[in-house]
Design brief:
Layout (H helix, E strand, L loop, with lengths): L13 H12 L23 H10 L2 H26 L12 H37 L4 H16 L4 H24 L1
Helix pairs in contact: 3-4, 4-5, 5-6
Length: 184
Amino acid sequence: MQLHLENKKVFMSNAEWDKLAVHLIGIRERYRENIIIPTTIGPVQIKTNEEKMVERVMESCVFKSIMSCVLGYGLGAAIGLFTSSVNPDMTSVDKKQTAREIFREMKMTTLSYAKNFAAVGLVFSAVECSIESYRGKTDWKNGTYAGGVTGGLIGLRAGVKAGIIGAAGFAAFSTAIDYYMHKS
């Protein structure tokens, strides 16, 4: 018994089946809204391209660094304003200061604190994000390394010994903060 496939009539050719499938199902490149994703904790929503783009921008090292700089500036300004109001600089006991002089002094102290906090926030955030991107891990070591580099850079302005002490101190502080934040 030999089969002769050449003589057999075909109901529809492959090209016709493809056309019918495209007609019934649609094109292959369309956005699938009916994908079933198993949920473990809660509902899963598929992100749109715009949401993915915004997420990429907000997770970039540049954005994180700029936000740390801006927030550090605001926090530094608040702390500077508080410290200047609590501890005014009494340059001369004999001469009374005017309100203008006191406000000028408060402004200088506030701006000084704001700039310092902004610089520390910018450097720490940039270094930590770079280390995290390089290592490909998110753990306590990133903050410790970033604290060491940041403290070293800040302390290096006063010399090598101050840079080493600053690196060790800032690394220890960063590790303690990381431990506390992840513990609770």
